[in-house]
Amino acid sequence: MAGTTTNGGKMRRGVRLVLIASLTLNLLVLGVVVGAYVKHWRHDGPPAHLSRLGPPHIRALPGEARREIGQAIRKGYRDPDRRAAVGDIYTRLAGVLAATPFDREAVRTVLSEHRAVLAEGRAQAEDIWLNRVAEMSAETRKAYAERVADEAEAGRTPYRHKADKR
């Protein structure tokens, strides 16, 4: 690499200054980002976590129960028959949306079928949850009911608004 160094392998003063300035700028940007993150965490609490998503009766469940229910729900959504039904519904929806003249009732019929498929999935999720609750002892169920009430009363969402801070 002839021509990149002078004075017996020493770095030019200008190149050294540019590298120092670049490093300084990078450290300043890193400091601003980390500082903003820490400030947000300190004032608003830790960043929202996915465990804060969902209705109160699900958030009140222990972590392993939420994971088990979530896995069962995802398994249901991956069912090939269900996926085929949803795909067929969207194909028909695209067809009725493109039709001329626009047929409002045809769209409503397809949307109703879609709603029925979604309701089926929701009913399966409710059954999974209900089976889990039915397995609880009376004492465990009572403690769970208190957590549900606490979650409902808190009315927390995973997204905090500055006006909510008090």
UniProtKB/TrEMBL annotation:
Tell me the organism's taxonomic lineage: Bacteria, Pseudomonadati, Pseudomonadota, Alphaproteobacteria, Rhodobacterales
Please indicate which superkingdom the organism of origin belongs to. Answer: Bacteria
Q: What organism is this sequence from?
A: Salinihabitans flavidus
- Keyword presence, Transmembrane: yes
Ranges annotated as spanning the membrane = 17-38
Task: Please report a single Pfam family linked to this protein.
Answer: Metal_resist
What name goes with this protein? Uncharacterized membrane protein
| InterPro entries the record matches | Metal_resist
Q: Which keywords accompany this UniProt record? A: Membrane, Transmembrane, Transmembrane helix
